[in-house]
Amino acid sequence: MAAKRKTPVKSRNPDLIRGVGKYSRSKMYHKRGLWAIKAKHGGVFPRHDPQPKAPTAAEKPPKFYPADDVKKPLLNKRKPKPTKLRTSITPGTVLILLAGRFMGKRVVFLKQLFSGLLLVTGPFKINGVPLRRVNQSYVIATSTKVDISGVNVDKFDDKYFAKEVEKKKKKGKGEFFEAEKEDKKKLPEDKKEDQKAVDASLIKSIEGVPDLKAYLAARFSLKSGMKPHELAF
Amino acid sequence: MPFKRYVEIGRVALVNYGKDYGKLVVIVDVIDQNRALVDAPDMVRGQMNFKRLTLTDITIDIPRVPKKKTLIEAMEKADVKTKWENSSWGRKLIVQKRRASLNDFDRFKLMLAKIKRAGVVRQELAKLKKENSS
Asked: What range(s) does the Large ribosomal subunit protein eL14 domain occupy (chain B) (predicted)?
């Protein structure tokens, strides 16, 4: 191919209306400078011979022809969009968890991870909720905000929360009858350290607000007469 | 039991249905048996069915269909806003609005305050009971 220009040229022939250019063929011939190219090459427009193509590998006939026609699945080029975070959820918002082991617990939102899940912490000392991922749909955002400026959450991402892959043990007959493994896997010490680091400054800012610590320690529940669609959170 | 609150020009009414729910408006003219011309400082003068209005005790002194400026001056002179906010009806509505706008955290703090108050009351009661019984 001839050398490309650094910036592609806009068409030299502006449209008067769609389909009709301002300049005629002969005018465009002159504007593009084809006369100058011809003059440089002795009155003939330069032709390049086609470059020799790289030799393609010889195609073998297929081993197997299916009896009926096999349908090819349609091409799917969809890319999932990043999960939109509700505008009511900002770093430091107190969220109410609606499902799961910590149903009803009030929890502090830290950041949204790449997978779209929300990174959340109790803090652990206050209500027993560790650094955890939570889906936006299972959460009510309250309008209470906690000051989160002292917390560094850069090191947490989805890989941090991936399940640890165990090495497969070879099955022996005797092992079935014995107790197989320890029941609970111990939490590695560095995760405990991470939890403490995140919670340290959080707890300080929480204790600065009166009653906030007790608020986070308590669980949310619907009482008689509370109508969720009429409650302001 | 005779009527105490009458539909008259200058009667302040509360809107109890529709787009302007909860607003205080002044009856500025009567259109026919069912409708009144109604005006308030922050709305365009328009007609409303009497069924949408609940009359209050407050009246102001205005001519029939006053200009907006006169209406506002008359409302200031009669001090409708403070009269309303000091009336028991007005105070109830303010409390209802405040309760409805409470945050989840506010409701928690309210619960703590109620428990505290109940504790103090119970202590006093216990003291009084003890004095009485002894």
From this structure: 45-117
Helix (H) or strand (E) holding A26: helix A25-32
Q: Could you tell me the two tokens for A55?
A: 């030799």
Q: How many helices (H) and strands (E) does chain B have?
A: 4, 5
Which residues partner with B54 through β-bridges? B14
Q: Does A99 touch chain B (CB under 8 A)?
A: no
> Residue A225 and residue B8: Cα distance in Å, rounded?
40
Of B100, B101, B105, which is closest to A144 when you measure between CB atoms? B105
Above 80 in pLDDT, residue A185?
no
For residue A61, what pLDDT band results from cuts at 50, 70 and 90? confident
pLDDT at residue B41 in the model: 94
- A232 and B108 in contact by Cβ < 8 A? no
The continuous run of DSSP H or E covering B18 comes out as: none
pLDDT averaged over every residue in chain A: 86
